[in-house]
Specification:
The chain has about 120 residues and is of the alpha+beta class. The protein is about 20% helix and about 10% strand.
């Protein structure tokens, strides 16, 4: 896990909010909507390269560098626990640090009941 990748995340957040072109919401397995344009993809790729110790392969037609905005009111009942079939995945949270207001926000990693594989659930501080 790599934390605090942006020296000024609030400026990045403001840039995305002001400049994102949002897709029309279609049926998906996640809440919110994605931006149609990518942000800071070269910078993110460099951060991942340092973390992995090798150059990541970024496939075409992915959402690499795109933003997703999920309003608090968007509680999609179709969202579910899933596996991303990839060697690595990255999520960059740009919401204000609101753990006291909304405990449990973020990403949790679960144990597979069939295989017993154990994954990490982030510690709450």
């Amino acid at each position: 896990m790599v934390e605090n990748i942006y020296p000024d995340p609030y400026t990045v957040r403001k840039d995305i909010i002001e400049n994102a072109v949002w897709e029309h919401r279609i049926k998906r397995t996640y809440s919110g909507t994605n931006s149609m344009n990518a942000f800071h993809a070269d910078y993110i790729k460099k951060v991942i390269q340092v973390a992995l110790g090798k150059t990541p392969i970024i496939l075409k037609n992915t959402l690499f560098g795109h933003a997703r905005m999920t309003p608090e009111t968007d509680k999609d009942p179709e969202a579910y626990i899933h596996v991303d079939p990839a060697e690595w995945a990255a999520i960059i949270y740009l919401n204000p640090n609101d753990e006291q207001l909304h405990p449990g926000n973020g990403t949790a990693i679960w144990r597979n009941k069939e295989t017993g594989s154990v994954f990490h659930e982030p510690e709450r501080t």
